[in-house]
Amino acid sequence: DEVLKFAFSKCKGFKSAVVMKKKAVVKASAKEEKKSLSMGYGFVEFTSEAHAMEALKRKQGIVLDGHAVQLQVSQRHSQQRSEPVKGGKPKGALTTQRLCVRNLAFEATVKDLRQLFGAYGSLSSVRMPKKADYSGHRGFAFLDFASKAEAASAFEALQHTHLYGRRLVIEPAEERANDVATALQTAEKRQAAKDLTSTAKRRRATAVLNTSGEAGTSFEDALT
Q1: Highest mean pLDDT out of 35-49, 54-68, 101-115, 189-203
Q2: Which of 29, 91, 144, 177 would be 83's cystine partner, CB 3.0–4.6 Å?
Q3: Residue 24 · residue 34 · CB < 8 Å
Q4: How many C-beta neighbours within 10 Å does residue 6 have?
């Protein structure tokens, strides 16, 4: 925390800085001690949005503890900015207070997700489905917020967030989509769509290659 505070303390409007941490067991010789380890991200607060943007421009890419810092604006205290449409609901507004988070690193824990997403609202539950052999989680989780507005805030602010080196894939979850089967079906459909697109591209590429040869010859024969 002190390193982060020192780096931004001379910026106009600086208020506070905090590094998000987790407890981890570290072996020191024959003893095991619990120490707070950085989760790789933190929050720096300013008195105004203008001061925050100025600091972002000035400090983008600075090196702290040997790592280049990537800065982005947090939406943790802001309301969702969407265009109003007929019916009074903002355009693109979430219709659920439940989120599905995929592409989780296997080091990630429920506590990690509560710390990260809890900054944007009150979480009523966090569930990480386990593998059949209970060797770990399946790489995704369901998060329930107290309100749709809080879910929307987290959804909007954390779209490009990385946790343990992996970019989180955050999606609205159907109210009924709280079981493993539904999540797996969604993932399978998404993969099938990707495979279909990939197959179509290969077919187009093959068609282009075939036109390079002479009539009645294969592409390989045309090269010889």
Answers
A1: 101-115
A2: 91
A3: yes
A4: 11
CB 115 within 8 Å of CB 22? yes
Least Cα distance to 101 among 112, 87, 86, 90 occurs for: 112
Give dist(CA 102, CA 214) in Å, integer.
Answer: 49
Task: Read off the pTM.
Answer: 0.46
* DSSP bridge pairs for 17: 44
Residues with Cβ within 8 Å of residue 89, at least 6 apart in sequence:
none
- Is residue 147 within 8 A of residue 24, CB to CB? The reply is no
